[in-house]
Amino acid sequence: MSIRENVAAIRAQIEEAARSAGRDPKEILLCAATKMNDGDKVRQAVAAGVDCCGENRVQELTQKLAEDAYRGAPVHFIGHLQTNKVRQVVGKVDLIQSVDRMKLLQCVQDEAARQGICQDILLQINIGQEASKGGFAKEDILPLLEKMGQFPNIRVRGLMAIPPICEKPGGNDKFFQEIHNLAVDITAKKYDNVSVEFLSMGMSGDFEDAIRWGSTMIRIGTAIFGARNYGNSHH
Ligand SMILES: *Cc1c(COP(=O)(O)O)cnc(C)c1O
């Protein structure tokens, strides 16, 4: 299957999942998770109509930006971001989805202030409380949002979550539901400069469940580009 056919198939699945949940499919953005796929593949995904591209690694981001591979689609950063690489990401992407710790939040603020810009971000939540994953604890989100006035060059536009890997359908529903409830709480509180426009959850294996729980952005790699070949990669 070509990238174009894969994107069309995913759109059909989004439509179906949205309708069965009583939602408008247009509310759900399709973010192509482009890691380990080259500029040419990224161009094909953009041409096939994905809503945005999400990059995981700074080196790949820099390279594909230089190739103008994302032209026509917003670029998001979705991977673990080291603080010493913040300068290569802030101001270069439309949204940093993976702000997962206080130290990174402060570094993004400092860099955005230095550049004189406002950087849009999502707060990443470690919803399964996994030691191997970054992310704020769910309980820390509301207290943090109270303090966003201390980060004037950052605008929080929502939440991102990567639940544990789960094979069985519906296996992550409990996590998606928790994120959904948190989003409802945040919206009700009406914090300054904070919205939950983006609820970024759902990947190739579980996006239909995520859509049932209110996801407004699914991040899809494998189902668009095929399996990633980690075997001969350099990392
Ligand atoms: C790779 C990746 C995805 C996409 O995963 P697939 O299972 O290939 O769809 C989504 N989000 C993040 C943060 C990723 O790193």
Please describe what this structure looks like:
It is a single chain. With 235 residues, the protein is α/β, with parallel strands linked by helices. It has eight helices and eight strands. The chain has an eight-stranded parallel β-sheet. The mean pLDDT is 95. The chain binds pyridoxal-5'-phosphate. Pyridoxal-5'-phosphate binds at residues 33, 35, 56, 78-79, 162, 203-205, 219-223.
* Beta-strand segment tally: 8
Q: What count of domains describes the coordinates? A: 1
Assigned CATH superfamily = Alanine racemase
The small molecules bound here are: pyridoxal-5'-phosphate
Roughly what percent helix?
A: 25-40%
Question: Number of helix segments?
Answer: 8
How would you state the average pLDDT, rounded?
Answer: 95
Largest sheet: 8 strands, parallel
| Series of H and E elements | HEHEHEEHEHEHEHEH
Round the Cα radius of gyration to an integer and report it.
Answer: 17 Å
Distance between the termini: 28 Å
* Class from secondary-structure proportions: alpha/beta
Tell me the name of the CATH class.
Answer: Alpha Beta
Q: What general outline do the C-alpha atoms trace?
A: globular
Share of β-strand residues:
15-25%
Low-confidence stretches: none
Reported CATH architecture: Alpha-Beta Barrel
List the strand order in the largest sheet. 7-6-5-4-3-2-1-8
CATH topology: TIM Barrel
